[in-house]
Amino acid sequence: MPEWSVVIIGGGPAGLTAGLYSARAGLKTLLLEKMAAGGQATITSEVENYPGFPEGVSGPELGQLMEEQAKNFGAEIRYESVEKLIINGDTKIVKTTESEYETYTVILAMGAEPKKLGVPGEKEFTGLGVSYCATCDGPFYKGKHIMVVGGGDTAIEEALFLTRFASKVTVVHRRDELRATQILQKRAFENEKIEFIWDSVVEEIKGKNTIEEVIVRNKKTKEKSKVLVNGVFIAIGQKPLTDIVKGQVEMDENGYIITNERMETNLPGVFAVGDLRQKPLRQVVTAVADGAIASVSAYNYIEQIREKKSGRA
Ligand code: NAP
Asked: Is residue 276 a contact partner of residue 242, using CB atoms and an 8 Å limit?
């Protein structure tokens, strides 16, 4: 019999909620996190769209509270990096750099990360003017000039969303036509607050305490220009952190794990939650819902195994 009932891989809001619900349901629950709990929420200075915090809550604080709550109900959290998932019938083995854990169920909650530009200033100003989430941080830029980098659906949707707050939104795209769908393009072209800098890439993000200017280089003319902005939203694609289960768990062409509404993957007893899952809205509020659903599904799966083993099914 496996030592664990549920092993959760990843300690963001989805994983921590799965931990809370699983432990609270009396399942022996282990959560493995490679860095620090809290997930992508911790890169947001203020979370204003998570219900229950009318004044907003800092991302790190929210992560810490979720971690505490999961632990209070008995979830065990270990800081180890997972390397491999081995399926052995009803038993799954989660191999980390340090150990191996046998379990009935696995909840994949490794999350996703925004692709980075990799330019000077990007890392230094993350959370201080550089953002990867317009829905999270847009309201902080009322009346300001914002730059959006990218030309896909996310970038254009974010640019449109940001016009609700900003006085001006400048989209910097590396080609002379957008990748985004026609309808979004049309809306963006018709929006008076949005302007475009074509064929251009960001070279450097500069400022003192916050962003003051961005150096942009035209790829065709090689000319460099200085754009004075208060914020830079980078939307050049997301990268789901699903490498450890590549080839095992069914994914879409972008590497997002495909589940049904019970968070079940193609592998019985393996569930996926949060940002690494193919879904329409990736936010803390949907991540925690995924975590709760997956725990109930894991509970039901374990019950079925127990019934099978006791010969009742
Ligand atoms: P995406 O479609 O991969 O677009 C990324 C954009 O960033 C592209 O315009 C790309 O330029 C640019 N880019 C990539 N790397 C870059 C770099 N290093 N420097 C500068 N620019 C760079 O990503 P996405 O917009 O996040 O969308 C991901 C998927 O979700 C897509 O399938 C999209 O349709 C879907 N989505 C759909 C909706 C919707 O239906 N409402 C909303 C959001 C996302 P190039 O064009 O030159 O490659």
From this structure: yes
Altogether, the residues listed in the chain come to a count of 313
180 CA → ligand 1 middle, Å: 7
Distance 145 CA to ligand 1 centre (A): 22
pTM, to two decimals? 0.77
Q: Is there an atom of ligand 1 within 6 Å of 237 CB?
A: yes
User: How many CB atoms lie under 10 A from the CB of residue 58?
Assistant: 15
Q: What local confidence, expressed as pLDDT, does residue 133 receive? A: 87
Say if ligand 1 is within 6 A of residue 175 CB: yes
Q: How far apart, in whole angstroms, are the C-alpha atoms of residue 174 and residue 61?
A: 37
What is the β-pairing status of strands 238-240 and 112-114? Answer: antiparallel
Mutate to test the pocket of ligand 1, among 236, 239, 283 (most ligand atoms within 8 A of CB): 236
Which pLDDT belongs to residue 46? 67
Residues identified as active-site: 133, 136-137
Residue ranges in the chain assigned as alpha helix (H): 13-24, 59-72, 134-137, 153-162, 182-190, 284-309
